[in-house]
Specification:
The complex is a heterodimer of chains A (about 270) and B (about 130). By secondary structure, chain A is an alpha/beta fold. Chain A contains eleven helices and ten strands. Chain B has about 130 residues and is an alpha/beta fold. Classes of the chains: A alpha/beta (about 270), B alpha/beta (about 130).
């Protein structure tokens, strides 16, 4: 079951022009799986539901519905401590390196933070490492996911995705059938809407998490984003990309630093 | 790797066992904590026990305490797999010596994710 070529081309074009995110060939499944719930909400089911839905949206040109289509395709699946290695590296390697140069409060940017698991995981990692003087700025393109992130409440199924039990008991309380992030973690994190194609938020940041988001952009846009991100970082600050992402052939200004389980990138400038 | 699945529900044991077998474990099953202790005594060398809380004869918490009282079993990783989901219960299980806690119902990804955290399966993308 897959969407038609017309549906895919229209949606890919819509997403590219409104968010610059590139849906290349082979991403038909993404269009199908992300838009099926929106089609279902309009009573459309069956193998051609998404095609019919997109045809209706095109005809209606309802701005609200177009925004929902873009948001459905630009929101990432997310889990606690996703991939584990970056959080271990933050605690054992990145944090000591940053601390060695800069004693003041740490500023961390979690870009494309989705429903908040990443910025809260960062805050919990730093609290557990004895670093309470931290502020985490968490941004995303999508307003609904930011609202969910800000609420800091998660279902049991969401908690099962990657949350170690000892961390859960330290940093969460029960909230109805789910769990709520404790205030001591929440107050370290600020959420705000931001588009990576626009000028970056005010820095300078000591560490930037930009994970599993560059994959959606073409090479020229990746380069532009990385240049803007670099301007918002302190010289010698650290950039953490997704496990499958690399800077190779995109931007040579960064220094690759090997860490346990992968690599991080160091912005130029400053003494190592 | 050898695992022990301890649950008084045969259906639940089968679900957990199948998922573990899919991840490469050889699995033994027990219907309560006392049966599970007998299997450990037999010395098959279990690396992991998935432990339900509420069971007849010997419950999961008592089982965890019994295992932790035996130094020769210190390398057995203990994970509660239960519908009990109060904050205080998780604290008690961890204090008794459980390493992880998975609340039912759960998806196969969630079980895999916990085993990755415990270093019992290689880390991969939690899809």
């Amino acid at each position: 079951m897959s969407v038609s070529t017309q549906t895919f081309d229209y949606v890919a074009d819509l997403v590219r022009t409104t968010s610059a995110i590139q849906l290349g060939p082979g991403k038909e499944y993404l269009v199908e799986s992300r838009l099926a719930p929106l089609a279902r909400a309009r009573g459309l089911v069956g193998p051609t539901a998404v095609d019919t839905y997109v045809r209706e949206v095109r005809r209606g040109l309802d701005r609200g519905e177009l925004t929902r289509v873009v948001e459905a395709l630009t929101t990432n699946e997310t889990s606690w401590f996703r991939d584990n290695a970056p959080f271990a590296a933050l605690r054992s390697q990145v944090l000591p390196a940053v601390r060695g140069r800069h004693p003041g409060p740490l500023r961390i940017w979690s870009a494309a933070c989705s429903t908040g698991q990443e910025p809260y995981s960062i805050a919990m990692t730093l609290l557990d490492a004895g670093e309470p003087h931290v502020s985490v700025l968490a941004t995303d393109l999508s307003t609904p996911v930011l609202a969910q992130a800000r609420a800091g409440e998660y279902s049991q199924l969401e908690m099962n995705r990657g949350m170690p039990a000892p961390v859960l008991v330290r940093h969460f309380t029960r909230a109805g059938a789910g769990w709520a992030v404790k205030e001591e973690v929440r107050r370290l994190v600020t959420f705000t809407q931001h588009n990576l194609l626009h000028p970056p938020p005010t820095g300078p940041f000591d560490v930037v998490f930009l994970r599993n988001v560059l994959i959606y952009f073409d090479a020229a846009t990746k380069r532009d984003i990385l240049t803007r991100v670099r301007r918002a970082m302190r010289p010698g600050a650290f950039l953490i990309l997704g496990a499958a992402e690399s800077m190779v052939g995109i931007d040579d200004a960064w220094e690759r630093v090997a860490v346990t389980g992968g690599s991080v990138y160091r912005a130029p400038g400053g003494t190592p | 790797m050898r695992a022990l699945v301890i649950d008084d529900s045969r259906a639940m044991r089968r679900i957990v066992s199948r998922q573990l077998e899919g991840l490469g474990f050889t699995v033994d099953e027990a219907g309560d904590g006392a049966q599970a202790l007998e299997l450990l005594e037999a010395g098959a060398g279990h690396h992991l026990a998935c432990v339900d809380w509420n069971m007849p004869v010997m419950d999961g918490l008592a089982f965890v305490k019994a295992v932790r009282a035996r130094p020769e079993w210190r390398d057995v990783t203990l994970m509660m797999v239960t519908t009990e989901s109060e904050h205080d219960q998780i604290v008690r299980a961890l204090a008794a010596g459980a390493h992880e806690y998975l609340i039912k119902p759960f998806t196969p990804d969630a079980l895999r994710g916990k085993l990755e955290l415990l270093g019992l399966v290689p880390a991969g993308e939690i899809a």
